[in-house]
Specification:
Layout: H1 4-11, H2 15-37, H3 40-57, H4 67-89, H5 100-103, H6 111-125, H7 129-140, H8 145-152, H9 156-177
Helix pairs in contact: 1-2, 2-3, 2-4, 2-7, 3-4, 4-8, 6-9, 7-9, 8-9
């Protein structure tokens, strides 16, 4: 958790404070970015752009919400912008590109578990960004529907509909493979 004192030091322009803020949140930011864009290099780009947005937006951060919630929203919005831009211009490298997670196998993991992870990853990759983000925020990060709605700027009902659709598609994708 990031302290109010650290946030205030960042708002005053203390460069050491911002470095500490980045250091404390780097893992969570990258993890969320990766889960949304599904590529390690793109996740790095999204993370860096998100921190630029955080740096610019900190003076206006009112601390009405928790900093972590605001940070998640910034990362999510940055990832959406990235995905839209990628979709508009095409993803030239996507075909045949091997994901870093697929290249590195855990030798201690049972083969069946690795296959399940791969199947789940493919199923998640098959979801649209709008469905994938609500699924990741709810099922991976455990955020309540209310927070997800606030974070991505849609109604709670829309989050529930997207979750229902995403889970239905995941179930179909995973059961048709069996």
């Amino acid at each position: 958790m990031v302290s109010a004192e650290l946030i205030e030091a960042c708002r005053r322009g203390d460069p050491g404070a911002f470095e500490e803020l980045v250091e404390r949140t780097r893992g969570r930011v990258y993890s969320l970015a990766f889960r949304l864009v599904r590529d390690p290099h793109e996740a790095e780009d999204v993370s860096q752009e998100a921190y630029v947005r955080v740096f610019r937006g900190l003076p206006g951060f009112r601390q009405e919400a928790r900093f972590e919630t605001w940070l998640h929203r910034v990362v999510t919005n940055t990832a959406f912008t990235h995905l839209k831009r990628r979709g508009r211009f095409g993803d030239v490298l996507a075909e045949g590109q091997v994901d870093a997670a697929e290249r590195v196998a855990d030798p201690d993991a049972p083969m069946e578990q690795a296959l399940d992870r791969d199947e789940l990853k493919r199923a998640l990759d098959g979801l649209s960004p709008g469905l994938r983000v609500v699924t990741v925020l709810k099922d991976v990060y455990g955020l309540p529907v209310r927070d997800i709605a606030a974070e991505i700027g849609i109604s709670e009902a829309a989050v529930k509909v997207r979750l229902h659709r995403a889970r239905k598609k995941l179930k179909e994708a995973l059961w048709t493979k069996s």
